[in-house]
Structures are given as structure tokens and as C-alpha cells.
From TrEMBL:
It comes from Candidatus Borkfalkia faecavium. The chain crosses the membrane at residues 21-43, 63-87, 99-126, 146-170, 190-216. The keyword Transmembrane helix applies. This is ABC transporter permease. Pfam families: ABC_trans_CmpB. Keywords: Membrane, Transmembrane, Transmembrane helix.
Amino acid sequence: MDTKETKIDRKSQTDGIGSDLARLFLMFMLISCIGWCMETAYVLLRFGHLSDRGFLSMPFCPIYGASILAVYFAVGTPQGSVLQPLFAKAKGLPLPARAAAYAGLYLLYFVAAALIPTAAEFLTGLFFDKLFGIRLWDYTDRPFNILGYVCLPMSALWGLLITAAMALLWTPLEKLLARIPQRAAKAVAFTLAALLLIDFCGNFIYLCATGAHYYLF
């Protein structure tokens, strides 16, 4: 029979897991928003006009958040990843050898950071194109593209951005989100999840009804 202390411990563990999941979701949303801002700024600076980026109406491109979290769960951060033992061994090497070892290890991480979002981008582009006949992006004018869904320059950019973000930004953002009280983190995460679901369903219904993507601007 469970004692009162056992029940309290279980509740604390459940609350802790719930808070961790809430903060991971907030990280997902934050990075998705940063990705939307980057794409919007790029189009504005290059073409001189605003463009409604992504599938959602809210300012989020979930492929950014999903890719970052996928990389985090697959390999972690560069020096806190599956490569950590190799980084630890490299510390004892002479400076030239250490620099070469670090460069090689970061290159391995870069490859993983490029492949994961490239796969996500290909599957997402293929899904919307073949099922609904719309292209959320088109790389047919870029070199080394595959059916216009992915291309080598964009894959390299994915790898560079994710490697830099995981090396420089992940830990500070993680610490920042950890400062949010448990209840507040859960409330904000729940609200954003509900809005995200409503946004996706609304756009999906519009797409099925009209055969076209709904653009705010």
C-alpha cells in the first residue's frame, strides 16, 4: 500500500516530467518562431516584400523547431553529444592534433545536423506536393537539388546553422526556459499547443476545401 510520502514523490516526479516536456515544447516553439523570422527577413531583404512563410498563419515554421529537437535527441549538442568521449580524448592531444581532431568531430556533427533537417524538408515538401499539389518551397533553380524539395546549398546551410545554434544558443536558451515556474511553463505550453492545433486544422480545412494554401500576405 502506498504511503503518503510515496504518493508525494510520485506526484513530484510526474510534475517534473510534465515541466520538462513543457519546456521542450516551448523550445520547439521559440526556435520555430526564430526560423519564421529568419525566413521572413531573408525574403524581405532579397526580394523587397513580405511573404507569409510556412504552412501556418501564426509566425512559426515548425520544421525549424522539429529539426533542432530531432538533432538534439539524436546526437545532442556538439560537445555534449555521442561524440563527447571523442572530444574528451582530444583534449589530451598536442595543440595541432587537438585542433585537427576538433575540426573533424565538428564536421561529423555538421553532417548529422545537415542530414536530419534535409530528410524532414524532403518528406514535408513531398507530402504537400503529392497530396495537395502545392509547394511550400521550390529549389529547382538551385544546384544539386532533388525534385526541387531539397538542395545541397540549403542542406549545407542547415548544417551550419544548427551546428552553430546547438554549440552557442541551446544551453543559454535551456537555462532561460528553466527559470520559468512550472505552472507558468505548463500554462504557456498548453496555450501555444492549442493555438498551434487550431491554426493547423484551420489551414488544413482551407487547403482541402479550396486546393490552395491560405496566405495572410
